[in-house]
Design goal:
Layout lengths: L8 E3 L13 E2 L4 E6 L7 H6 L1 E11 L4 E9 L13 E8 L10 E9 L1 H7 L6 E10 L5 E10 L1
Antiparallel strand pairs: 1-9, 2-9, 3-8, 4-7, 4-9, 5-6, 5-8
Length: 154
């Protein structure tokens, strides 16, 4: 059965509506970027068939405990005290040090967060993009965000 969905990947570099971060980017401060969604206004059947997923590629040191949180927001909402409560928490990335490796060995990981329900909760299903906010918590001196994109999995 042929899918009616367009290509299933959109990246930060394809958006123009809101300032986007250029990746790779060190996570030395909050990163806020707008990500273009591959398809908007999906039907309930399409949402059940394929989950919209935020994928963040992360490079981090194997020897350092690090953590950052990820939030999503409606692209139409500019950051303010009033609409801060409308931002949805997507999840966290945590790196736990492994054994006793020597040197500063770096590894690349992909962390995935389900977006379908978050986008519905934000009322952003018809929006062409969403704002993604990465907030450093601890040990992020050695963390680099290599890419941020949205794909459909299912």
């Amino acid at each position: 059965m042929a899918s009616s969905l367009p290509p299933t990947t959109a990246t930060a570099s394809e958006t123009a509506a809101t300032p986007s971060a250029n990746f790779p980017k060190p996570l030395d401060d909050v990163i806020r970027t707008n990500i273009l969604r591959p398809k908007t206004s999906r039907t309930k059947k399409q949402k059940e068939a394929k989950e919209e997923v935020l994928i963040i590629e992360v490079e981090s040191s194997c020897n350092v405990y690090s953590k950052f949180d990820v939030y999503v927001n409606d692209e139409d909402e500019r950051p303010s005290t009033e609409n801060r409560t409308k931002t949805e928490y997507a999840g966290s990335f945590v790196n736990v040090p492994h054994g006793q490796s020597h040197g500063n060995l770096m590894k690349t990981s992909c962390v995935k967060f389900g977006l379908t329900e978050l986008i519905d909760d934000l009322g952003a299903d018809d929006d062409e993009g969403i704002d993604v906010i990465c907030v450093p918590r601890t040990g992020t001196e050695s963390v680099v965000i290599k890419d941020v994109r949205i794909e459909f999995l299912g």
